[in-house]
Write a structure and sequence with these properties.
Blueprint lengths: L1 H15 L4 H9 L5 H8 L6 E3 L22 E8 L2 E8 L10 H17 L3 E7 L8 H17 L5 E10 L4 H4 L3 E5 L4 E3 L3 H8 L5 H5 L1 H4 L8 E3 L2 H14 L38 H8 L6 E3 L7 E8 L2 E8 L10 H16 L4 E7 L6 H5 L2 H14 L4 E10 H6 L9 E4 L4 E3 L3 H8 L7 H15 L3 H6 L4 E2 L5 H11 L18
Parallel strand pairs: 3-4, 4-5, 5-6, 5-7, 6-8, 11-12, 12-13, 13-14, 13-15, 14-16
Antiparallel strand pairs: 1-2, 2-3, 9-10, 10-11
Helix pairs in contact: 4-5, 12-14, 16-17
Bound molecules: hexanoyl-coenzyme A.
Length: 510
């Protein structure tokens, strides 16, 4: 027995070394942690239960016979984050560059199956060179199996991808089908084809960072939902994110201990909106002063900053926040911000996370660049997402709610449950100046007359009362009471039951 135990320990020690000390040192020299070090930071201390530590590939081509390393380039298992079950797989770059073989894929699919069966989130840590080149089609088959499971699990359990090194070829598409992708700055990059192939095909010369670093995907392409300075920060932030999410679509959002008074008033909000309607202000101030303890987990902070998306809590329960940001492009809705917000609303709706929307939007962005880029379809995504969402929806209009954007931003007409407006709200088809110039085109040469017309329109519509008279706004509230009113509304909506008609799935304008 003693011998067997010693053999087990020896085998475990070998497996834990992955590709060996030299490769571990090389990994550290690049500023990266190893797969096991990452898992131990992500999960609660001593909670990791590993699966398939001794699994090895069966490839015999291209000199692979006898070149086996236990674990085969991916560490898989389950553990807890602040006591809640999660499944995890972490690519081990020290073993064949973390590349995906048939058996490596089986390890991942086993974890995916367990996560779906047991309804708990799955987190993938990526650091890999794509398909195991020596295996050919067996690796492609493996990817297909992973992809199919990503889709089965979509909307059932949260799926999170953290890119912590190279993520190329087949490795990009599994993260792309998960709910969130985060990256580590400077050490991670994602692309379908790398700089060498790009050079051959298009003659462009780019570095890996320029092609697919965090500076690209968290800012320009919107592939990534955020980027962090290093492995440690990224993993700790993933723990924060998981705390906001329910384990699956079948359960309610987690309820954390709350230390912030639900009735707390914030007098400073009464002066947040400037007297001049064209002056910007920071919508994040409203968000931070509304949520529990000012804690906000922002999604896609650096992309389409004219709309803000992220998670907060009210009385300890998670909410999703969508807010126009008057500080950036006057908070206008364009293609990028519409897509960003639509995806976020859909995530919240999948996972029973109530949606709180703060509105200050002058409309959709005009121009050929937007129209040629498909603004109609992208704007429709957000309209569609809000319209199909059956989670509790609370809307607060702080200032402008103009034109189609008024309808889109969780208005009563698309089944906002509780729609509030601040006294500073202006709800109209368009701004007073634009309206007067269209209605009184013949008077355009007379500045005084037009100024009078603008004022007339302003006086009539630049307030919340026309909408409130029709019941489109449930109540005009004082800004300092915003948190209190939202907390009460969320409590009132706790047992909301709303269902869309049965369908196989909808046909959101993609
Ligand atoms: C097998 C691989 C590998 C791969 C890396 N390695 N990628 N082995 N299959 N795909 C091995 C290397 O041979 C090397 O082994 C070790 O991992 C470390 O790799 P290095 O190249 O030394 O590391 P580095 O310089 O940091 O470069 C990392 C890299 C590069 C950028 C990821 O390795 C690379 O470009 N790899 C190939 C990427 C790729 O084209 N993958 C296939 C994509 S096709 P030794 O023993 O020398 O240390 C694909 C199709 C799937 O994925 C499509 C499904 C839809």
């Amino acid at each position: 027995m003693q011998n067997i135990i010693e053999e087990l320990e020896a085998r475990r020690a070998t497996a834990r070394l992955g590709g060996g000390q030299a490769r571990i040192d090389a990994q550290h020299a690049k500023g990266k942690l190893t797969a096991r070090e990452r898992i131990s930071l992500l999960l609660d201390a001593d909670s990791f239960e590993e699966y398939d530590m001794f699994v090895q590939h069966r490839c015999t081509d291209f000199g692979m016979q006898g070149k086996t390393i236990p674990g085969d380039g991916v560490v898989t298992g389950w553990g807890t984050v602040n006591g809640r079950l999660v499944y995890v797989f972490a690519k081990d770059f020290t073993v064949f560059g973390g590349s995906l073989s048939e058996t490596h894929a089986r390890k991942i699919t086993k974890i995916q199956d367990m996560a779906l069966q047991n309804r708990a989130p799955i987190i993938g840590l990526f650091d890999a060179g794509g398909a195991r080149i020596q295996e050919g089609v067996a690796a492609l088959g493996g990817y297909g199996e992973v992809f199919w499971r990503n889709v089965q699990a979509s909307g059932v359990i949260p799926q999170i991808s953290l890119i912590m090194g190279p993520c190329a070829g087949g490795d990009v598409y599994s993260p792309a089908m998960t709910d969130f992708i985060f990256m580590v700055k400077d050490t991670s990059y994602m692309f379908v084809t790398g700089p060498d192939v790009v050079k051959t095909v298009t003659n462009e010369e780019v570095t890996a960072e320029q092609l697919g670093g965090a500076s690209v995907h968290a800012v320009k392409s919107s592939i990534a939902d955020g980027a962090y300075e290093n492995d440690v920060e990224a993993l700790l932030q993933m723990r924060r994110l998981i705390d906001f999410l329910p384990a699956s679509n079948l359960v309610d959002v987690p309820e954390m201990p709350a230390f912030d008074d639900a009735e707390r008033v914030e007098m400073s909000l009464d002066t947040l909106v400037p007297a001049n309607p064209n002056m910007p202000y920071d919508m994040k101030e409203l968000i931070l002063k509304t949520v529990d303890e000012g804690v906000f987990f922002e999604i896609q902070e650096k992309f389409a900053a004219n709309i803000i998306t992220g998670f907060g809590r009210m009385e300890g329960r998670s909410i999703g926040i969508i807010a126009n940001q008057p500080k950036v492009l006057a908070g206008v809705l364009d293609s990028d911000s519409s897509r960003k917000a639509a995806r976020f609303v859909r995530f919240c709706d999948c996972f029973n996370i109530p949606v709180v929307t703060f509105v200050d939007v002058p409309g959709f962005l005009p121009g050929t660049a937007q129209e040629y880029g498909g603004l109609i379809k992208h704007g429709a995504k957000l309209l569609f997402a809000y319209s199909e969402a059956t989670v509790p929806k609370i809307t607060v209009i702080t200032r402008k709610a103009y034109g189609g954007a008024y309808d889109v931003m969780s208005s009563k007409h698309i089944r906002g449950d509780v729609n509030y407006a601040w006294p500073s709200a202006e709800i109209a088809v368009m701004g007073a100046k634009g309206a007067a110039e269209i209605l009184y085109r013949s008077e355009l040469g007379d500045a005084d007359k037009i100024a009078g017309r603008i004022k007339e329109y302003q006086d009539r519509f630049a307030n919340p009362f026309v909408a409130a008279e029709r019941g489109y706004i449930d109540e005009v509230i004082l800004p300092h009471n915003t948190r209190k009113r939202i907390c009460r509304a969320l409590n009132m909506l706790r047992s909301k039951k709303a269902e869309n008609p049965w369908k196989k799935h909808d046909n959101i304008p993609l």
